[in-house]
Design brief:
The chain is mostly helical. It is about 75% helix and about 0% strand. The mean pLDDT is about 85. GO terms for molecular function: protein transmembrane transporter activity.
Length: about 140
């Protein structure tokens, strides 16, 4: 008789996952902050100085980002960014000498291919000119 109660949706059992209502409420607040920032900036353009409006915009935009970060999608985005930074630390970046050598090789190959294409184009132009100048 001692059964654990299993949630209907296993993905909602994860730590930190918000209900659909809470998620929607957070998105509504984030969109409201963005709307107030946009409309308020246009409406109060003549009432406040530029510096005050910029500061208020920054505060409202930060508030919108904070509310969006607490949503389920925001939590996934933050997790993705953290994992990406962790993976970036694993990369072995080339040295200055390796970068210089690779750049020079790419430049040389580009010059060789450009000369080859120029030569082929010159031959084709010569053949077409010869054929079009023939009079029968």
């Amino acid at each position: 008789m001692s059964k654990e109660i299993q949630p209907k949706h296993p993905e909602t059992a994860e730590k930190g996952v918000k209900s659909k209502g809470a998620n929607i409420a957070l998105w509504v607040l984030a969109i409201a902050f963005l709307s107030v920032a946009a409309v308020g900036n246009a409406y109060f353009a003549s009432h406040f100085t530029f510096v005050v409006r910029v500061l208020l915009l920054v505060v409202l935009l930060v508030g919108a980002v904070v509310f969006a970060a607490f949503t389920n999608q925001g939590q996934k985005a933050i997790t993705f960014i953290k994992e990406s930074r962790h993976e970036l630390r694993k990369i072995v970046w080339p040295t200055r000498q390796e970068s210089t050598q690779t750049t020079l090789i790419v430049g040389a190959v580009c010059v060789v291919v450009a000369l080859a294409l120029w030569g082929i184009d010159s031959i084709i132009v010569s053949v077409v000119t010869f054929l079009t100048n023939l009079r029968f």
